[in-house]
Automatic annotation (TrEMBL):
This is Vacuolar ATPase assembly protein VMA22. It comes from the Eukaryota. GO terms for biological process: vacuolar proton-transporting V-type ATPase complex assembly. Residues 87-117 are annotated as: Disordered. InterPro entries: Vma22/CCDC115. Signal peptide: none annotated.
Length: 175
């Protein structure tokens, strides 16, 4: 008879080290983004790059999508705004499906793609402002990865605690 530790449960041992590595990676794009933003403010002037140039109506370019992964873990992913996650494709019902009739076409004004926020600062923006935007996007992706890893670590800790409790219950009974 085996112990509960040699069962099919796998505890993610390398997750804390991976989390530290990814966290260090996240600091670099954030720092680079703020430095590039400072360079853009220096090149264009402090009044040309600031909150006064923000649009009156802002829409997000990216959204955070949480999905259920294995063992009920949540996995976070950064997706472009307006793009929906693909649904599972499969046969829901056996038989024929009725096609939808012609639908009313939406007005072109309402289906407009989100405007690039760099255009708020003018047509010809410095390269450092584009670099700042790219760095912050990378940082956002890494933040989603960190959140997914943190969930996995929490799950691993709870699995380890459960296995330790099972082991403690078996030890007094065997002695």
């Amino acid at each position: 008879m085996g112990t509960p530790l040699d069962g099919g449960s796998r505890v993610p041992i390398g997750c804390p080290a991976k989390l530290r590595r990814v966290t260090r990676k996240k600091v670099a794009p954030d720092l680079e983004g703020w430095l590039s933003l400072a360079k853009a403010r220096y090149a264009m002037g402090a009044k040309s790059v600031g909150p006064l140039q923000y649009a009156s109506h802002m829409e997000p370019q990216v959204c955070l999508h949480a999905s259920e992964a294995q063992e009920g873990l949540q996995k976070f992913k950064v997706v472009r705004a307006g793009v929906h996650a693909p649904e599972e494709v499969g046969t829901r019902e056996a038989g024929l499906r009725r096609r939808k009739g012609p639908t009313k076409t939406p007005e072109p004004e309402s289906s407009e793609a989100p405007q690039d926020p760099l255009n708020w600062f003018g047509i010809l923006v410095p390269h450092s402002l584009r670099q700042a935007q790219a760095s912050f996007r990378d940082g956002l992706q890494l933040a989603a990865d960190i959140a997914s890893l943190q969930n996995r670590i929490d799950w691993g800790r709870s699995q380890l605690r459960g296995l330790q409790e099972k082991l403690k219950q078996l030890e007094p009974g065997a002695a």
